[in-house]
Design goal:
Strand content: over 45%
Distance between the termini: 98 Å
Structural class: mainly beta
Number of strands: 48
Number of helices: 2
Helix content: under 10%
Shape: flat
Length: about 550
């Protein structure tokens, strides 16, 4: 840039971060550089004594950019050589060359190349400095094969049992197979299921043979061990609930029970049925009472009833062995809470020794001289809450710790949607009665009195027992755990009192709050009792 002093006095100009002196009539040339980061309009500006002078410079950039489209190759063997036609496009703004081929801006060219392929996957090739993405896929059939069907049975002569062969092509190329002389074609992901029937005429080992040829060459065999006389065993759970099971020979069936108590007695039994239609069958039976022989008439059955003790949660396996074959019935138990119905509550007696720390309280006004500000801890709150026809009343004691521990009393009443609580305690520099008046829906403090005189107090709401502000803890066919959660939550003074784990253990509901306190909630006749750092007794009307 050029600075010219057209005046008659020496000028001092601040430019490019320094001061430049220009005498009258003198011309000073200053040089600076600007870097263009991209094509387009570049603004060059300079400040001279705080005034910006600018001009625009147009930047043009020309270059060829050659990019190859991805190539896809399918091979049947590895390693191998493949011939590809690769499409190369010039996405730049200047004509480019790939060998003897000239590609204008926006133009494309097909280039034939031969490449050695050694492995499957996606990688890159180079054509005259241009990177070509190439994906190589190996195409071949692959098989998953299974045989199945009954492996042992007790049957009448002439009965037929299925044996099957299942083949799935899990490869990525179509397979051609011949199964027992029948031609089959399986595309990728296709499956075929062939069933043969085994006729049982006598005791012995029977085999179903499947001959597979073509892209898969194998002989698949399924084996069946057969007995002529068969029995069926039914396991019955009679009490506490009726359940039936049919375990397979040397196998098991399962059922589950939901119990409210930790221990329960179950009554169970087994019924053995013969599938013989014309002859009497003698079976050798072993159970928990010992060993015995049972005679089953044609189309008849025999059985026995037994008892067992189960624990919840847990499981027990009851069993019977018939002719050396074991049948097992597994009874699993899960502990579930009972449901409770509480129509009405007349009174709640409680004591809560779960401390809440660091509450701020600030009061001023007659009879308090000046402003008194304290940080207090609520050590314990106890009381009796009684429900009336149009509201409720509460009275009890509260222990507050500031410098020392002070024990005072409180009492409160709620009628309709308004209420008040009087706290009578030695703190704030003397003995005072602080009255808090409030609305209940939604909760809002409307007035604070100090010894009956309006004052200014920031009173922690935790000083008012939360159970006093909660609704009546009734329940209608509610799980005991849910009710215990609601009940304990109604006593919370702060975040540490919030229940974190609620569990029924067969005798009571155990509640662990966020502070780690363990509470036990018992449900008795005409009352609900809480034991622990929070103790309470609800009198049910």
């Amino acid at each position: 840039m050029t600075l010219r002093n057209v005046g008659n006095g020496t000028a001092v100009v601040y430019v490019f971060g320094k001061y430049v002196e220009v005498k009258p009539g003198e011309v000073v040339k200053l040089n600076a550089t600007a870097t263009a980061q991209a094509a387009g309009i570049l603004k060059i500006a300079v400040e001279v004594n705080g005034t910006e002078y600018a001009r625009e410079v147009y930047i043009y950039y020309y270059t060829p950019i050659l990019a190859a489209e991805p190539a896809y190759v399918e091979v049947r063997k590895l390693p191998t050589n493949v011939t590809l036609s690769v499409v190369v496009k010039n996405v730049g703004n200047w004509t480019g060359r790939l060998g003897p081929i000239e590609i204008p801006p926006g133009g494309t060219a097909a280039i034939n190349i031969t490449a050695a392929v050694n492995a499957t996957g996606t990688y890159s090739l180079q054509i005259g400095g241009v990177e070509v993405p190439i994906t190589v896929v190996y195409k071949a059939p692959s098989f998953e094969i299974k045989t199945g069907g009954p492996t042992e049975t007790e049957a009448l002569p002439g009965e037929k049992y299925p044996a099957w062969l299942w083949i799935k092509n899990v490869g990525n190329a179509t397979a051609k197979l011949s199964i027992d002389g029948e031609e089959r074609e399986l595309g990728p992901g296709d499956a075929v299921n062939i069933t043969k029937w085994i006729q049982v005429d006598k005791v012995g080992i029977y085999k179903a043979v499947f001959k597979v040829e073509g892209d898969l060459n194998t002989t698949a065999v399924h084996q069946l061990s057969a007995k002529i006389v068969a029995v069926k065993v039914e396991m019955v759970l009679w009490k506490p609930e009726l359940r039936r099971g049919w375990p397979p020979p040397n196998g098991e069936d399962r059922t589950s029970l939901l119990l409210e108590s930790k221990t329960a007695e179950v009554q169970w039994g087994y019924i053995i049925t013969s599938n013989a239609s014309k002859r009497t069958v003698v079976v050798y039976v072993e159970d928990v009472q010992g060993r015995d022989y049972f005679t089953i008439p044609p189309k008849g059955s025999v059985g026995r009833n037994l008892t067992a003790t189960v624990q919840a949660p847990g499981s027990i396996a009851v069993w019977v062995i018939v002719n050396g074959t074991k049948y097992t019935y597994v009874i699993s138990t899960q502990l579930v809470p009972p449901k409770v119905t509480i129509r009405d509550v007349s009174k709640i007696e409680f004591r809560d020794s779960r401390e809440i720390l660091g509450l701020g309280i600030k009061c001023s006004g007659i009879p308090i001289v000046g402003t008194i500000q304290r940080t207090i801890d609520i050590v314990e709150v106890s009381g009796v809450l009684a429900y009336t026809t149009d509201g409720k009343t509460i009275e009890g004691t509260v222990k507050i710790r500031s410098v020392d521990v002070y024990t005072g009393s409180y009492r409160g009443i709620i009628t309709g949607t308004s209420g008040r609580v009087d706290i009578d305690v030695d703190f704030m520099g003397g003995h005072h009665v602080i009255t808090t008046k409030f609305r209940t829906s939604p909760f809002e403090i409307t007035e604070v009195l100090i010894d009956g005189v309006p004052g200014k107090c920031d009173i922690p709401t935790q000083l008012i027992p939360s159970i006093f502000l909660s609704g009546k803890p009734a329940a209608d066919n509610e799980l005991a755990t849910q009710y215990a959660f609601r009940l304990v939550s109604a006593f919370k003074k702060g975040d540490s009192d919030v229940p974190q784990r609620v569990e029924w253990n067969g005798e009571y509901v155990e509640v662990v709050d966020k502070g780690g306190n363990v509470l036990r909630v018992y449900f008795g006749q005409g009352e609900v009792v809480i034991e622990g750092p929070l103790s309470a007794r609800l009198v049910i009307s």
